[in-house]
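Fill in residues.
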């Protein structure tokens, strides 16, 4: 267990390093398509995106945050998904979803920040459901400087009832029940809270604990149909995850700091990504 966790943490810490390869993908601000349709190529952590669509900054039930980062692109399936759950949030009066990072114009690795989000199938959604944004379009400065508050009490594993709401749970359940969603990454304390509810647990299988994620949840879609070069993640366990595997996340082993990771080299991208990058 310890060795596997170290490898996982190595991937997380590697997000803090940049390389010339990462910058090549980041400086491109226009999507490009090779072939007849949009294609997610490679894996979520080592891939690219052909035929990306850009999420509009405003839509029914959502607004895009941090537009200057240039990470508002995704596979058309992801754009449709965000627009759809925005409509759901609006129709059920849950507030406006604030959307964080999707991916870059052609996917690929980023200079800093996310190691994943490379194939246009990942999106971060803030836990802050804005009622202010429900009545107006946020100004650029607000989008750049507003922060989503943590849903945890400071320096603890306890959920902060001032920041958590029933709407958060409803949105997580709504997203998890969508057939195109592969999994949702949340803070372990959020997963633990959901496991204590007496409502149906059949959707919790897709909700996976992961480090961080105390101020947003991360939605990952399945590989789209007919995207033959897209590599999906391993199948989910059959259980709802409310068992000893969840308890581990609150153990000393899970929380113990690991030695600073040696700067890793960039992960090898599929050869087809060269054509996307140089289109």
């Amino acid at each position: 267990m310890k060795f596997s966790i170290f490898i996982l943490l190595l991937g997380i810490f590697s997000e803090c390093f940049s390389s010339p390869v990462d910058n090549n993908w980041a400086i491109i601000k226009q999507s490009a398509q090779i072939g007849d349709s949009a294609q997610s190529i490679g894996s979520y952590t080592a891939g690219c995106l052909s035929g990306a669509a850009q999420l509009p900054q405003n839509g029914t039930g959502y607004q895009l945050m941090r537009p200057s980062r240039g990470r508002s692109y995704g596979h058309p399936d992801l754009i449709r998904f965000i627009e759809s759950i925005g409509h759901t949030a609006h129709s059920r009066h849950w507030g406006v979803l604030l959307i964080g990072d999707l991916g870059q114009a052609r996917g690929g690795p980023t200079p800093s920040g996310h190691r994943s989000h490379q194939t246009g199938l990942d999106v971060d959604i803030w836990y802050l459901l804005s009622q202010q944004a429900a009545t107006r379009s946020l100004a650029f400065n607000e989008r750049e400087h507003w922060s989503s508050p943590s849903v945890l009490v400071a320096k603890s594993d306890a959920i902060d009832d001032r920041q958590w709401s029933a709407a958060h749970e409803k949105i997580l359940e709504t997203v998890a029940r969508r057939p195109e969603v592969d999994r949702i990454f949340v803070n372990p304390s959020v997963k633990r809270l959901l496991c204590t509810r007496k409502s149906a647990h059949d959707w919790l299988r897709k909700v996976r604990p992961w480090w961080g994620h105390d101020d947003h949840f991360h939605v990952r879609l399945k590989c789209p149909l007919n995207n033959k070069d897209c590599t999906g993640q391993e199948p989910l366990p059959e259980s709802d995850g409310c068992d000893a595997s969840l308890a581990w996340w609150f153990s000393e082993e899970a929380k113990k700091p690991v030695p600073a990771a040696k700067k890793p080299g960039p992960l090898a991208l599929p050869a087809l990504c060269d054509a996307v990058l140089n289109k």
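The chain is about 25% helix and 15% strand.
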